[in-house]
Amino acid sequence: EAGVTQFPSHSVIEKGQTVTLRCDPISGHDNLYWYRRVMGKEIKFLLHFVKESKQDESGMPNNRFLAERTGGTYSTLKVQPAELEDSGVYFCASSLHNEQFFGPGTRLTVL
Amino acid sequence: GEDVEQSLFLSVREGDSSVINCTYTDSSSTYLYWYKQEPGAGLQLLTYIFSNMDMKQDQRLTVLLNKKDKHLSLRIADTQTGDSAIYFCAESMSDFGNEKLTFGTGTRLTIIP
After folding, report:
1. Is B7 at the interface with chain A, CB within 8 A?
2. Distance between CA A70 and CA A48 in Å, rounded?
3. What pLDDT digit, counting tens, does each position of B51-62 carry?
4. Residue A15: pLDDT over 90
C-alpha cells in the first residue's frame, strides 16, 4: 500500500510568487492534516480536513494560505503571495481511525 | 496554552543508552507520542503512551511518563547507528486520527562510533 506522498519535494521561489503544494493521502483515509516546521523550531499544526470539509483551520497563519481538498481525496496548499517567513518544511499526514501517517514533506524556500 | 519542549541535540556512544526528554504544559493531554524522522523521510510513529500510564516498554524502547511534573522520556537501549535521527515528542487531547498533534522542537540524536 502506498504511503502519503507529497509534491514537490523541494520548491525554491522568490518573495511575492505563488506556490502550490500537493498531498496525496493513503487511499481511504478521511482525515488529512497539514503541518509546518520552520527551521529549528517545532512542527506546528496548520489545518485538518475530514473528507472535503475543514474540521479545524485554527493553525493557518494568515489569509495568504489556502487549503483545499476537493472530492475528499488529495489536498493542495497554496501560498500567495509567498513571504520570507513562509520558508520551512510542510508535512501532510492522513489517518483513518488511529495513527497519523506522515508524508516526507515539501521543503519550501522563499528568497 | 499548549507547549512542548525538548533539548535540540544529544550525542551518545554506540551501544550506550539514549535518553531523550520532553516537557509539556497542557495537563489535559490524553496521548503522548514519540516520532522519529530520518533524513529525507517523513515522521514515523515509534510509540505512544496514554496519560494514565507511567511506563511503556517495546523492545529497545522505554517510555516513562511523570504526569505530576509533565515530563516524558524516551530511552533507547543499546543505541545503534540506525537510531540516528530527529526525535519529536508530541501530545494530543484526543484519540489518534481525530485531533491535531502538538509537537516539540525535536531532538537530533547523533551516535558516536
Report:
1. no
2. 14
3. 888 999 999 999
4. yes
Nearest CB to A4: which of B42, B97, B106?
B42
CB pairs under 8 A between A and B: 59
Contact A40 B40 (CB under 8 A): no
- Beta bridge partners, A58, equal none
> pLDDT tens across A76-109, in order?
999 999 999 999 999 999 998 768 899 999 999 9
- The total of other beta-carbon atoms located within 10 Å of residue B84's CB is 16
Cβ distance of B41 and A104 shorter than 8 Å: yes
CB-closest option in B8, B42, B100 to A91: B42
Residue B29 forms contact with A (CB below 8 Å): no
Q: Which residues pair with B88 in a beta bridge?
A: B35
Helix/strand/coil for A58: coil
Distance from CA of A105 to the nearest CA of B (A): 6
Asked if residue A91 lies in contact with residue B43, where contact means CB atoms within 8 angstroms, the answer is yes
What would the mean pLDDT of A12-25 be, rounded to a whole number? 97
DSSP code for B2: -
- β-bridge partners, B49: B32
CA distance A100 to A32: 9
